[in-house]
Amino acid sequence: MAKKPLTVALAGNPNSGKSTIFSNLTGTRQKIGNWPGVTVEKKEGQVTVNGYRLTVVDLPGTYSLTAYSIEEIVARNFILDDKPDVVVAIIDASNLERNLYLATQLRELDTKVIFVLNMADVARQRGVKIDGKKLSELLDVPVVFTVGNANEGTRDLLNEIIAVAESSIELPRTRRVYYGKDIEKAISELSAMITETVGERLSYNTRWVAIKLLEDDRIVKGRVVRLDGTHGPAIVEEADRSRARLRELYDDEPEIVMTDQRYGFIEGIVKEVVRTDSIDRVDISRRIDQVLTNRVLGLPVFVFFIWAMFQLTFTLGAYPMDWLDTGVGWLGHQTAQLLPDGAFEALIVDGVIAGVGSVVVFFPNILILFFCIAIFEDTGYMARAAFLMDKVMHLIGLHGKSFIPMLMGFGCNVPAIMATRTLESERDRILTILINPLMSCSARLPVYILLAGTFFGLRAGNAIFSIYALGIVLAIVMGRLFRSTVLKGEVAPFVMELPPYRMPMLKGLLIHMWDRSKIFLKKMGGVILVGSIVVWCLSAFPAEVQFSQDYATQRRAVSTRYDTLISGAQGAGRQVLVEERDAALGELNAQQARERVEKSYLGRLGKFLAPVFAPLGMDWRSSVAVLSGLVAKEIVVSTLGVLHAAAGDGGEESEALRRALKQSGMTACSAYAMMAFVLIYIPCLATVAAIRRETNSWRWTLFSMGYSVTLAWLVAFVIYQGGKLLGLA
Amino acid sequence: MRLSELREGQTATVVRVGGGGPFRRRLLEMGFLRGTEVCVEKYAPLKDPMELILKGYHVSLRVEEAANVDVEGVRDGER
Fold first, then answer.
1. For strand A41-49 and strand A496-497, is the pairing parallel, antiparallel, or unpaired?
2. DSSP A557-593
3. Residue A567: which pLDDT band, with cuts at 50, 70 and 90?
């Protein structure tokens, strides 16, 4: 039996529990993508009930339906153009008045609307009782009660959706917001004009269009003009004349007066349907905030949470990371045995498995990080973090909300850049994206550990910490610089709701964690895969290398020499000889590997670019390592390993590499310069891809790459040359 | 008097929201209407922004933004 398809749109304020209702309705079968042309997230899910196939679309959370923010425009256009069968307005029952502001606007759009009073339990706890039946009668809409966190009322809602979709509610509704005599007159005149001229071609309610025109809504204006070349402009002109008249009359902008009237209408309804007990109950949320945003304790507690998050991410994440690392090693080993020796085997084992493996091992860290962030978000602490940090972020000309993406940058810049979507202003978004890579991501840490561990001994921790601090300082400096040059303009207002604290649901946390981590895996997987193959090819070709000496002959010579000696020796002496022979052979193999890479395309490229890096105290090997680090920063370490021919087994590897680095002429000063360079230059291909996607512009992507390389070079130059002047190099 | 001049714990009634275009509209949509009671819950540790309670919910606003809101009838803590 064919299932009847229905489209359902979920609309509501941020923090109204919309996404919980969405998961309750659709389960975990969600599709996450972008709304076309903009960087606002679109969530879609499917559910089959009673022979109906429901497609549930989660509209962006908004407070209103004006044309000021992308989210509002997206939500509105979906209802107007895609004409969902039912629009579900999620209303936070404990915050009825403000939530009804959006809900009544949805009602004005002339679609089939269901009001969902969510979190009625919280409202009751606060002594607020809502008469759902009365609300339904007064506004002529069906009302359903739900408790999202307990998955209550989901079934009722599904049944109501189907009932409403199949019913023939009379539209337009008779009971509507009354905007006052003069505005109502202007509305009816304008809608009469619209009906007479373009009425038949207009697919939405004329009263709504008239209201929007009087509110000076630029998008509706544009649509009317485009609809009809002659009548359209005439209608807009008439609307502007009416606006001028009303402005004179009310001594204020008509849209402001209309907002006032809408709230007046809502206030009347709230008075009729809400009964408040006079008992003043303890507001737990307020109590919590007495500590968490306390003048003295607020910031230390915040710093502690962040510290705890990173501790969890790195210490707890280290265990599964080890297992994965072992697993990747095992896989490489097994594959090497399965495949016949040759270029293909090397491509799969050294290129694909090693390259992708080096990123996959970070996956547990990413999962934990996102789990922590989901806890911050779902409890409501995220808004407090923004509240606490706004002053600091405002120094850079950013919104407090930008703090979160910046913070996530310490984990991985890719999800951090994706998280900038929560910012309302596009300028804020771009600025945050531009300076985000300066937050040193976890992939850069292995590089610091290697270099600082080698050259700074016991002070390695301080050296690494100072690199992180350098990134933050540079972010502030660059942020201010961009704000006053390429991204001039008003700072977005900080009108942010501080929602009540809520107990997070494990299911919700897991879904949030997985949604983001999945994108990380997908993106990193794809880009890293390609990048690893490219770097491997550059380092493996040309396949035929003219070696400076005949390694095979030398190996044979060594073997023969020692074999005679060994066969003549006995006991402990024999053992020593065997070890000596193996060491000599290993040295020869390493020399050959080094020469191989030196003469590969990658090596030639590094040597070609070496003069550029020389003033930074970096030799050709470091140049090659930095180049290969474009794919992913961890690769810098493995490339250095290959180039310094420190290939050994397991734990000895890093020891050997450290020794080789010290012998190569690198000093503490040049190592620090290189650390700074690694901090600042283009983070990795995946981040570049994320920047391209989120800014939706190649111009900004190229700008980001260009400025970071330039800045990296300058800073490293100053460090190295400055150090030399001070006699540190 | 301006909303930004209120101390912690003080309550006042909104008279008028100034400032320009989208900002003013947004504030009104969030419920900063003439006659609405606004209580200053607290200032952030770094003195900016401030946390307000109106219409039964909490919202934060920068001090410079709150300077656009004219209030009257300032009184000390009710809650």
1. unpaired
2. HHHHHHHHHHHH--HHHHHHHHHHHHHHHHHHHHHHH
3. confident
Rounded average pLDDT over A5-33? 86
Q: Say yes or no: A406 and A379 in one domain.
A: yes
- Using CA atoms, how far apart are residues A50 and A47, in angstroms rounded to an integer? 10
Tell me, yes or no, whether A86 and A213 share the same domain.
no
Taking only the tens place, the pLDDT of each residue in B15-63 is: 999 887 778 888 998 999 999 999 999 999 999 899 999 988 999 999 9
Q: Are A436 and A406 in contact (CB under 8 A)?
A: yes
Model ipTM? 0.94
A138: β partners: none
Residue A312 reports pLDDT greater than 50: yes
Nearest CA in chain B to A102: B29
Residue A299 lies in a domain: yes
Decide if A505 is inside a domain: no
Residue B77: the pLDDT is 66
Which of A211, A144, A208, A174 minimizes the C-alpha distance to A8? A144
A350 and A447 together in one domain: yes
Separation in Å, CA of A66 to nearest CA in chain B: 9
Give the model's pLDDT for residue A265.
93
Cα A360 to Cα A326, A366, A367, distances in angstroms: 12, 10, 11
Looking at residues A668-676, what average pLDDT do you find? 94
The CATH number assigned to the domain holding A245 equals 1.10.287.1770
Point out the domain boundary residue: A224, A242, A276.
Answer: A276
Contacts of B22 in chain A (CB under 8 A): 68, 493
Q: Determine the Cα–Cα distance for residues B16 and B23; give it in Å rounded to an integer.
A: 13
**Looking at beta carbons, which residues of chain B come within 8 Å of A95?**
55-57
Which whole number is the average pLDDT over A317-338? 87
Q: Which residue of A has its CA nearest to B25?
A: A256
User: What is the chain B residue with the closest CA to A296?
Assistant: B45
Q: Report cis status (omega within 30 of 0) of the bond before A320.
A: no
Overall number of domains in chain A: 4
Q: Which of A298-307, A506-515, A634-643, A673-682 has the lowest mean pLDDT?
A: A634-643
Contacts of A470 (CB under 8 A, 6+ apart): A676, A679, A715
Q: Do A495 and B30 touch (CB under 8 A)?
A: yes
Per DSSP bridges, beta strands A86-92 and A4-12 are parallel
Give pLDDT, residue A650.
Answer: 37
**Is the domain of A12 the same as that of A149?**
yes
**Amino acid A663: pLDDT:** 84
Alpha-carbon span A506 to A374, nearest angstrom: 10
Residue B51's beta-bridge partner residues?
B42, B60
Considering the domain architecture, whether residues A162 and A185 belong to the same structural domain is answered as: no
Predicted TM-score (pTM) of the model is 0.79
Tell me: the pLDDT tens digits for A471-482? 999 999 999 999
Q: Tell me: domain B3-75, CATH 2.30.30.90, correct?
A: yes
Provide the pLDDT for residue A174: 67
Q: What's the Rg (C-alpha) of chain B?
A: 11
Please name the member of A66, A494, A500 whose beta carbon is closest to the beta carbon of B62. A494
Question: Residue B62 phi/psi, 5° resolution?
Answer: -70, 150
Answer whether B9 touches A (CB < 8 Å): no
pLDDT above 70 for A636? yes
Q: Which of B34, B29, B31 is nearest to B56 (CA)?
A: B31
Range of the domain at A366: 292-484
- Res A716: pLDDT: 96
Between A63, A94, A390, which is nearest B30 by CB? A63
Residue of B nearest to A216 (CA): B21
Chain A nearest CA to B55, separation (Å): 7
Paired strand residues for A53: A5, A48
Mutate to test the interface with B, among A68, A92, A119, A259 (most CBs of B within 10 A): A259
